[in-house]
Amino acid sequence: MSKGYSRQATPLSVERQLRQEAGFGCAKCGHPYVEYHHIVPFSEDEHFRPEDMVALCGQCHPMVAKWQRDRQYEVKRKPFNISNGMFSGALEFDKRDLVFKVGGNWYDNTPVILQFFNKPIIACSIEEGQAKVSLDLLDPSGRSLLKVVNNEITFRIDDFWDFEYAHNLAIARYGSRDIALRMDFRQPEAIIVGKIWLGEQKIILGKEETNLPNATLRGGRTSHCGVGIQIGDLISPPWPSPPQTDPQLKPRRNAPCPCRSGLRFKRCHGAV
């Protein structure tokens, strides 16, 4: 009796390297859902060499696979997202209620889950019968590192070490063991965990609890409330304006930012 063919799965480290070099999307078109294509076919050489593989979406994969190898390597050398410097994609899930587990606490029909002064940081709504999530992942200066607007995710490629994307799941990482944001909607309970800077305050949204500057929230439930967590008042601006300086004395890109955020100027108010 013949046995069915089964090929070894692509090693996770190889998948990550291919995502990183392609800017976390399809090297051809930038689409966020990717497969891992062997430019040198596996049937010819049973390998998982990153230099002979490329990340492609399901639509581009069969097309690119038919091209001559020199053209495939050209796609690998010039990934779409790297050329643009940006990632963009929609978090696709089927959720028809506004019940979310954020930082170990439940929020039920609470349109603004977390707000900093008058700026919503995590919010949700129902549009055309489907749940929509909006979220702003910030650095200490208030610059958006990653933004979600009604399930549409965008971020600059060089702000993250890795970004893993699949149906109902998105994970952004600052480093190998440093998760910036995880949105897991694969189960009925929609879970959001991560680390958010609100000015000089770091908010930890853990699996079991939310760590605020002066409090820890665990296992709570907020229902039918306009705002779940309010930090700061609704009048003062959330971030101070950067000091006005003579244009001729503009800080060097690698110098500390004048706003005293602790970041380099190029990563703060000097960001393009």
Which descriptors apply to this entry?
272 residues, mainly beta, globular
Topology of this structure?
Elements: H1 12-21, E1 35-38, E2 53-56, H2 60-64, H3 69-77, H4 80-84, E3 86-90, E4 99-102, E5 105-108, E6 112-116, E7 119-127, E8 130-138, E9 144-149, E10 152-156, E11 162-166, E12 169-175, E13 178-184, E14 190-198, E15 201-205, E16 209-212, E17 215-218, E18 221-223, E19 227-231
Parallel strand pairs: 4-14, 5-18, 6-19
Antiparallel strand pairs: 1-2, 3-10, 4-5, 6-7, 7-8, 8-9, 9-10, 11-12, 12-13, 13-14, 14-15, 15-16, 16-17
Model description:
The protein has helices at 12-21, 60-64, 69-77, 80-84, and strands at residues 35-38, 53-56, 86-90, 99-102, 105-108, 112-116, 119-127, 130-138, 144-149, 152-156, 162-166, 169-175, 178-184, 190-198, 201-205, 209-212, 215-218, 221-223, 227-231. By secondary structure, the chain is mainly beta. Strands 4, 5, 11, 12, 13, 14, 15, 16, 17 and 18 form a 10-stranded mixed β-sheet that branches. Strands 3-10-9-8-7-6-19 form a 7-stranded mixed β-sheet. The protein has a two-stranded antiparallel ribbon with strand order 1-2. The mean pLDDT is 89.
User: First CA to last CA: what distance?
Assistant: 63 Å
Structural class: mainly beta
How much is the average pLDDT? Answer: 89
Summarize the biggest pleated sheet.
Answer: 10 strands, mixed
Structure summary, number of beta strands: 19
